[in-house]
Amino acid sequence: MIAVIDYDAGNMLSVVKALKHLGQEPVITRDADAIRSADKVILPGVGAFGDAMNRLNGYALTEVIRDVISKGTPFFGICLGLQLLYDQSEESPGVAGIGALKGSIKKIPAGEYKKIPHMGWNSLAFPNKGRLFDGIDEGAFVYFVHSFYLEAADRNSVTATCDYNVLIDASVENDNVFACQFHPEKSGAVGLKILENFISI
What we know:
Elements: E1 2-5, H1 12-21, E2 27-29, H2 32-37, E3 40-43, H3 49-58, H4 62-70, E4 75-78, H5 80-84, E5 103-107, E6 118-123, E7 141-146, E8 148-152, E9 158-163, E10 167-174, E11 177-180, H6 188-199
Parallel strand pairs: 1-2, 1-3, 3-4, 4-11
Antiparallel strand pairs: 5-8, 6-7, 9-10, 10-11
């Protein structure tokens, strides 16, 4: 069973719809036992870092997520779900994240031609091609919507990057933990392949 964590952060239904298209029957839940017993867990999300952490803490889900990750369950953070896996974000100073991975969440700098937020399609480069991108060619386009970006401390964990005023770490893989800044569920055939690759892990 794939558990999609429900913490009122939006974007769950589009993830569920994509998973169902791939023949899965995901469960949207905030039940700790259901999440801990799931075969795979997905943390989607859009919105602000601080608000999201307040909701995760309020639903007592932060420790559940840490438990799931520590026991080796395949875990996938999407968009805000990627950012929440880190210690903190410039978006919400003083708010502690889940802390499963090390790195900095920073505001995308302004550029002469590229507006913030980064919204739309961008191509990926694969510095260390990970399991999520099996069967996907470098240069594939995926869909982004974000104003803050990851700069990972462990460069070996970075499996995809893109350029938008700055080098953005677009995807990471660390043992059983996977995360994408972009939205695979909104990225057409490429995104479905990424989700399919996660399902097969």
